[in-house]
Amino acid sequence: MLDTKLPDFTLPATGGQVFSLAAQAGRIVVIYFYPKDSTPGCTREGQQFRDLHGDFLAAGAVVLGISRDSLKAHENFKAKQSFPFELGSDADEAVCTLFGVIKDKMMYGKLCRGIERSTFVIDRAGALRREWRGVKLPGHAEEVLAFVKTL
Questions:
Q1: Is 17 exposed, middle or buried (0-12, 13-18, 19+ CB in 10 A)?
Q2: H/E segment holding residue 114
Q3: Cβ 15 vs Cβ 1: under 8 Å
Q4: What are the average pLDDT values for consecutive 10-residue runs of the chain, which has 151 residues?
Q5: Which residues, other chains included, contact 26 with Cβ-Cβ below 8 Å and sequence gap of 6+?
Q6: How far apart are CA 133 and CA 83, in angstroms?
Q7: For residues 110 and 129, what is the distance between their CA atoms, to the nearest angstrom?
Q8: Which of 13, 15, 59, 80 could pair with 19 as two cysteines, CB 3.0-4.6 Å apart?
Q9: Rounded CA gap, 124 and 106, in Å?
Q10: The dihedral formed by the CA atoms of 20, 21, 24 and 28, expressed in degrees to the nearest 10
């Protein structure tokens, strides 16, 4: 998938938006997939992207967070954390499947399916240029921003 043009996809997003990859042509797109709204790790991750959002914009990038949560949950999460970017709802897992982020995970000793914390950078022509899977939070948003600045 790396260095290949991605197919267009759309999904409902906060703010009454519909996010379309094709509509982002000419912009760098940073998509981060996270497991669940308002959980400690996902909150910290979103806060990192929030705190660097101005730098991402200055580098010509749009940021989108995606999980399987409902738009209502996303709106609450976004408002509570003052996220300046949209959150996409992938309830049917179509976009998660496209990016291969749905994994079997152990939670509290039980096997369950969920989103593996992952981030993807798509260039101005719509090609996937970088991916991070199994993301560890400390310094992650800074690393993504440093890569975006190279495009």
A1: middle
A2: strand 110-115
A3: no
A4: 91 97 96 96 97 98 98 98 98 96 82 92 97 94 98 95
A5: 124
A6: 22
A7: 34
A8: 13
A9: 37
A10: 140
**How many whole angstroms separate alpha carbon 127 and alpha carbon 146?**
18
Rounded CA separation 30/34 (Å): 13
pLDDT at position 111 is: 82
DSSP 8: P
* DSSP-derived pairing of the beta strands 86-89 and 61-67: parallel
Please confirm, yes or no, whether 42 is among the known catalytic residues.
yes
Q: Cα(125)–Cα(133) distance, rounded to whole angstroms? A: 22
- Of the CA atoms within 13 Å of residue 79, those in its CB half-sphere come to 8
Q: Which of 29, 42, 121, 144 is catalytic?
A: 42
